[in-house]
Design goal:
2 copies of one chain form a homodimer. Chain A contains 5 helices and 3 strands. The longest helix of chain A is centred in the last third of the chain and has 16 residues. The first copy, chain A, starts with 10 loop residues before the first helix and ends in a 9-residue tail after the last helix. Chains A and B meet through helix 1, helix 2, strand 2, strand 3 and helix 5 of A and helix 1, helix 2, strand 2, strand 3 and helix 5 of B. Chain B binds a DNA duplex through helix 3 and helix 4.
DNA sequence: TTCCTTTATCGTATAATTGCGATATAATTG
DNA sequence: CAATTATATCGCAATTATACGATAAAGGAA
């Protein structure tokens, strides 16, 4: 111990948790909001938009890339980031199903 | 340092990240899935359904409660948990807006 | 080539998370 | 009251996350 235990959980559960975890930090949410708004964005502009150092932003970008939510394309000395549409829609579907499978309305306890 | 920096982020960003973080663990996703399916559930049943110890499950329940996503009602010696409908719908709306404000379709990088 | 710009990675310090046994707390039962 | 059941909390160890300065790597410009 003590890393997160994964045995005994459904694949669907693990995948959803992984997406949520990747988005469970203000910097990473802000990066996604920026990429949604601007479609694509060079790393330096992302750094400028966040209240964190270049090194820290680079780490968060790596985390989002590792989770498959964004892509980075090298453009000369710069790197242009954008949303990975395929995985982003996949995540959207998972999240949608999670919230829409609804208990609906009553608070039974 | 080094706790998460919160200054310089929009309230909306912080709130969304907080929800995502609360759901960023397989056990907590599994608990929510269980509560969605069964409407309400006694703590002991949740413990039985997860591959974790009673102490650990209790911690995860406390985290979800702290995030406002669930409520616990004392029922004799037992505690009955259910989803906090108000905050759950609020979270749903935030998430919906996040994913639906869409870049749509093209991968520009 | 040398210098500058841009980004990633390294090293490190600190904090938070995860997990569980042990124990405390509270209600119920006999 | 004593014993049992059900949860929460404590204490601890191990792991992971966060943040940033310093440095490396890679490309473009002079």
């Amino acid at each position: 111990m003590t890393a997160t235990k994964t045995e005994g959980f459904a694949t669907e559960t693990l995948e959803l948790a992984a997406v949520m975890k990747a988005l469970g930090h203000p910097a990473r949410v802000a990066i996604m909001q920026l990429l949604i708004e601007r479609q694509a964005c060079v790393c330096g502009s992302i750094v400028d938009a966040l209240p964190l150092s270049q090194a820290t932003v680079s780490q968060h970008l790596a985390a989002l890339k590792e989770a498959g939510l964004i892509q980075g394309n090298i453009d000369g000395p710069k790197v242009c980031y954008c949303i990975d549409q395929t995985n982003w829609q996949k995540a959207r579907d998972m999240v949608k199903q999670f919230w829409d499978t609804n208990t609906c309305c009553s608070s039974p306890c």
